[in-house]
Amino acid sequence: MQTIIKGLKTNRAFALFSGLVVLLLLIAIIAPVISPYNPLETIMKNAYLPPSAEHLFGTDKLGRDNFSRILYGARYSISSVLMLVASIFVVGTTLGILAGYFGGKLDIVIMRLSDMMISFPGMILAIAVAGVLGGSLLNAIIALTVVSWTKYARLARSMVLKIKKHDFVEAAVVNGGKAAHILWTHIVPNILPLMVITAASDIGAMMMEMAGLSFLGFGSQPPAPEWGLMLNEGRQQMQTAPWLMIFPGLAIFITVAIFNLWGDALRDVLDPRQEN
User: Residue 161: how many CB atoms within 10 A of its CB?
Assistant: First the structure.
């Protein structure tokens, strides 16, 4: 935590993008307060209204205010991608730590399972899993977790194998330290910064994949105001009502760019190699 606070004071890029991330989260939280209309309210006489002072981003085929739906979409898109990254982080890191520390048959099973998952194209496998489970936001998170944990498991395993050889770990083993204590006290704190950097850097990519599943109908379902789903709903009117795709697309682009740049700045702050 002290490293983060120091980074906010000394790294301007990290401070800037951290502020933008906080702003995005704040917009998602207070969306019901700042939205001018109910995002689910349909007024058919207002269908396909172009952007104006009354409706900043226009309206959709059901007369719903596009600006309000995008504000609410921040809640769906950002919260879902954070849950997804947290899920991948916990599952992948835990399996990688267990495989690296205990080795043996457990390591073989986890790594062979990882090899099997990597052999399939990730997005295709996610679509297949989501298709079996059914289209919903929760099932999309499960599907992407199933195909994305391998990266974290392999990274955590390689780091654990390296740290196991250090004198302080061997000393803890010789002194009779239990595996759980050694893992929690010596292993996890040493691999956590790099794992957190990896997770932060993946938020943008995972948001694109979540939006992709929703666009294809395997993620959020109507009438949820989720950005990927809004792109799918607006694609048929791309020529007659382009604002239905332009503004959700911009929301995804800006959010992904902010999280990617924030992840890069966080790496500069937390990476031990950056220290003097």
Answer: 15
Find tokens 């059901």 and name the residue. Answer: 62
Burial label for 115, CB within 10 Å (0-12, 13-18, 19+), is exposed
Please give the chain's pLDDT, 276 residues, in tens: 677 788 788 888 989 999 999 999 999 999 999 999 999 999 999 999 999 999 999 999 999 999 999 999 999 899 999 999 999 999 999 999 999 999 889 999 999 999 988 888 888 889 999 989 888 989 999 999 999 999 999 999 999 999 988 888 888 888 887 888 888 888 998 899 889 999 999 999 999 999 999 998 898 888 889 999 999 999 888 889 999 999 999 999 999 999 999 999 988 888 745 544
Query: What pTM did the predictor assign?
Result: 0.89
CB-based contacts of 219, cutoff 8 Å, min separation 6 = 80, 130, 135, 136, 137, 140, 210, 211, 213, 226, 228, 229
